[in-house]
């Protein structure tokens, strides 16, 4: 039997990263096919290539034996491939029917035939069993209902392949059930569903076949999900050799430096408690959406907390104010360098001194000499590679930008706690080791460090202790002697407590 | 062609354009280079020049202020009316500065604290303040009683009129503030990336309020000098000033996307606006055409800003 959808030797690299290498697998018609892997395993890249959003360096995609070489999302769409992303792509102020017809409204001379518009959509929604009013504005619908509408749109466009990227991440369990029965229905119509998820329960429940990716490579391909086990899949996801690029070494730890008591906020409903000692590097791991970054932002006061306290060396920090956190000795390097980190269009020097310059500026008047000296000191200390401190930060590589932002925090006086979110995202391997080395040096000087990362090997490689988060809660607190990929990942996967509250 | 493009879009591009325009105009327009005309030219750009100083801060922090023209008229009016009523010029000036600062403060609080779009907010205050000026004067010009008030604009120091000195002084002060103070650098940082600045401990809300308050205050200085020069408080003075000022700033390389500004650029931008107007007057071009030319200059300025941003490798936000 001919494979309906086939990936043939797909490779893709980004600067410094081999995102996918030599991926080949095939999916038969009328099948729900699962795609699993850790964060960064290459799932999203593969989906992006399938959707025409990006093109592969080598390799090809075949649909019904026909090679596709589409160049844009539009071409993919014409080939019958529709990807439904986590961020839905509907126009909130239009009705369901209008959204489904958007771009090709029925009617004559620019006047919309509203009866056809509504009735075709009503018929279609009834046919596939979606209970949504075609005249409802999308903005009034729940996230779950919007997702249904998005799928209905795919059906109306006669999609042959529908890829769903983490579709249940923001759905309630009831909404998920409705989604699952819809998927079953589409499958019986012969549509291929490519189902990307972290949740093992869902994979076992929905998928016929499964591909596991790891570090951009094909780790396993199962023709029948029923023939495998949960443990097998987990070990396929993590089974990599641990190379020693981390350079971790034992450090003496001091007293408790950072103490967090029943902290909760907008996305972290359950109060969180933990502490970090002087000289300790605490790794914070969790899958996307587990609440890692939200926690970091709460600690620093970047977002407003609901309750709880954060104290450094026994002194509570006043909440919801980054400046108070800075004054108390906390430094934060945000996850998204481009949006929250660098100040584009300004020099490296200004980017380093932005928060500390007030200390050496009597009456707010700057001292160019001191500013330059400070910038040069951190450029040297953190080994930022640049021809001059006057260089616009936008011209630096990701690794060097990260160092500048680190320097910005460290140039403050009396740094006691460093919170660093995704320290090496988009950074090449050489620069990564350098950043780890810097973190060890800082820890050795007594700073308590929290490293947040979605890369499990990194967290395991550099942390003295790991806190695993799952669905906004602390799922496990593991000392270095007990580090084990399987345990950590199991704690991070949400479906182990699917019977729980959420 | 390519190198020409580089020069025109580079840091010094504007200065090059300005120098070329200046030379051409000096050669071809009679009387342009005379001392009298030069002083007249500078005199004519005093209002634009002074207000540009703070508009530069406003734009550099990614904000916008349309209410400057109204504030200039309103504070000029206040200066005249309070001086007349109290018999003390000093009191009048003080009241004007306070009034201008209050308008700016109001703008700042509404925009930064209540997070209302700056364009809409200042569009509203532009009309409110103009209305207040008209109500206060019943729509008529208010003459100055004390002739000493004229002296503000008429007096000369080393043969150069005082308002020009004040403009130059403000250029120096705000150039220093922009480049050499925490306030100036934070302004640029906010414009470059507000969220990153907030996370780095910059109090973005307070900064924005101060920038608008300062803008109002400086408008009041311009308003006082204008009232003194036209010897009365005119409720309809300085209409359309906001557009000339923003044109001058953008022409001077201040990015509408924020984060990029230079005092020298703004000075040159102001002078270009002044020269364009001056030359058209010298050549007896009808006032109606001057609107068209001014509009064209604004368009060219925005186009240049866009080209410069693309050349600098960052898109408009």
UniProtKB/TrEMBL annotation, chain B:
The keyword Nucleotide-binding does not apply. Keywords: Cell membrane, Membrane, Transmembrane, Transmembrane helix. The chain crosses the membrane at residues 12-33, 39-59, 66-83, 89-111, 118-137, 157-178, 209-231, 264-282. The keyword Amino-acid biosynthesis does not apply. It is a multi-pass membrane protein. It holds the Pfam family BPD_transp_2. GO terms for molecular function: transmembrane transporter activity. CDD domains: TM_PBP1_transp_AraH_like (cd06579). It is found in: Cell membrane. InterPro entries: ABC_transp_permease (IPR001851). It comes from the Bacteria. One of its GO terms (cellular component) is plasma membrane. This is L-arabinose ABC transporter permease AraH. It comes from Phyllobacterium salinisoli. The lineage of its organism: Bacteria, Pseudomonadati, Pseudomonadota, Alphaproteobacteria, Hyphomicrobiales.
């Amino acid at each position: 039997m001919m494979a309906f959808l086939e990936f043939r030797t797909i490779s893709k690299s980004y600067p410094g990263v081999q995102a996918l290498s030599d991926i080949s697998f095939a999916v038969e018609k009328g099948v729900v096919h699962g795609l699993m892997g850790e964060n960064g395993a290459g799932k999203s890249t593969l989906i992006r290539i399938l959707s025409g959003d990006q093109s592969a360096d080598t390799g090809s995609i075949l649909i019904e034996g026909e090679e596709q070489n589409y160049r844009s999302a539009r071409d993919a769409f014409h080939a019958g491939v529709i990807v439904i992303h986590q961020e839905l792509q509907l126009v909130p102020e239009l009705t369901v029917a209008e959204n489904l017809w958007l771009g090709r409204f029925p009617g004559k001379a620019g006047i919309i035939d509203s009866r056809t518009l509504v009735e075709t959509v009503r018929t279609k929604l009834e046919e596939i069993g979606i209970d949504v009013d075609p005249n409802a504005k999308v903005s009034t619908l729940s996230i779950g209902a919007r997702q249904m509408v998005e799928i209905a749109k795919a059906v109306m466009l006669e999609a042959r392949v529908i890829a769903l990227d983490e579709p249940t991440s923001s759905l309630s369990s009831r909404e998920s059930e409705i989604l699952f029965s819809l998927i079953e229905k589409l499958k019986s119509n012969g549509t291929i569903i490519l189902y990307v998820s972290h949740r093992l329960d869902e994979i076992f429940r929905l998928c016929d076949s499964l591909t596991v990716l790891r570090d951009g490579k094909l780790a396993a391909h199962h023709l029948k999900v029923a023939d495998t086990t949960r443990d097998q899949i987990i070990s396929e996801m993590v089974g990599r050799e641990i190379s020693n690029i981390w350079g971790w070494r034992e450090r003496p730890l001091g007293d408790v430096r950072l103490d967090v008591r029943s902290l909760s906020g907008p996305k972290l409903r359950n109060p969180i408690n933990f502490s970090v000692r002087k000289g300790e590097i605490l790794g914070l791991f969790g899958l996307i959406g587990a609440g890692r970054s939200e926690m970091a932002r709460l600690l620093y006061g970047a977002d407003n907390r609901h309750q709880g306290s954060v104290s450094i060396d026994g002194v509570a920090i006043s909440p919801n104010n980054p400046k108070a956190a800075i004054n108390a000795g906390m430094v934060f390097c945000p996850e998204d360098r481009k949006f929250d980190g660098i100040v584009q269009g300004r020099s490296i020097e200004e980017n380093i001194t932005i928060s500390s310059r007030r200390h050496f500026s009597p009456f707010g008047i700057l001292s160019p000499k001191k500013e330059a000296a400070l910038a040069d000191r951190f450029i040297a200390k953190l080994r930022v590679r640049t021809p001059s401190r006057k260089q616009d930060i936008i011209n630096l590589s990701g690794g060097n930008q990260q160092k500048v932002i680190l320097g910005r925090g460290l140039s403050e006086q009396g740094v006691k706690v460093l919170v660093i979110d995704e320290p090496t995202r988009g950074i090449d391997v050489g620069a990564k080791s350098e950043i780890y080395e810097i973190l060890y040096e800082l820890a050795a000087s007594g700073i308590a460090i929290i490293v947040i990362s979605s890369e499990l090997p990194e967290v395991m490689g550099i942390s003295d202790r790991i806190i695993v988060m799952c669905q906004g809660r602390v799922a496990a607190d593991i000392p270095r002697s007990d580090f084990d990929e399987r345990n950590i990942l199991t704690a991070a996967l949400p479906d182990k407590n699917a019977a729980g509250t959420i | 062609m390519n190198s020409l493009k580089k020069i025109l879009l580079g840091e010094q591009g504007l200065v090059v354009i300005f120098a070329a325009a200046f030379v051409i105009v000096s050669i071809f327009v009679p009387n342009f280079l005379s001392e009298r005309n030069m002083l007249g030219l500078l005199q004519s750009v005093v209002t634009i020049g002074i207000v540009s100083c703070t508009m530069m801060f406003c734009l550099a922090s990614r904000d916008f202020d349309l209410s400057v023209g109204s504030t200039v008229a309103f504070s000029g009016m206040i200066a005249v009316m309070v001086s007349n009523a109290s018999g003390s010029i000093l009191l009048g000036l003080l009241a004007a500065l306070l009034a201008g600062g209050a308008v700016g403060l109001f703008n700042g609080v509404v925009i930064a604290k209540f997070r209302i779009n700056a364009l809409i907010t200042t569009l509203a205050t532009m009309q409110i303040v103009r209305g207040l000026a008209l109500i206060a004067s019943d729509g008529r010009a208010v003459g100055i009683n004390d002739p000493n008030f004229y002296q503000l604009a008429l007096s000369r120091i080393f043969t150069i009129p005082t308002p020009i000195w004040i403009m130059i002084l403000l250029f120096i002060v705000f150039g220093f503030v922009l480049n050499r103070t925490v306030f100036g650098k934070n302004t640029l940082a906010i414009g470059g990336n507000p969220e990153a600045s907030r996370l780095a401990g910059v109090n973005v809300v307070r900064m924005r309020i101060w920038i608008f308050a300062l803008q109002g205050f400086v408008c009041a200085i311009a308003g006082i000098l204008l009232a003194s020069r036209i010897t009365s408080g005119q409720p309809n003075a300085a209409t359309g000033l906001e557009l000339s000022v923003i044109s001058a700033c953008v022409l001077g390389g201040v990015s509408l996307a924020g984060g990029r500004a230079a005092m020298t650029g703004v000075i040159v931008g102001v002078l270009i606006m002044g020269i364009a107007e001056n030359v058209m007057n010298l050549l007896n071009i009808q006032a109606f055409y001057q609107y068209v030319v001014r509009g064209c200059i604004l368009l060219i300025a925005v186009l240049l800003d866009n080209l410069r941003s693309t050349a600098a490798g960052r898109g408009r936000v």
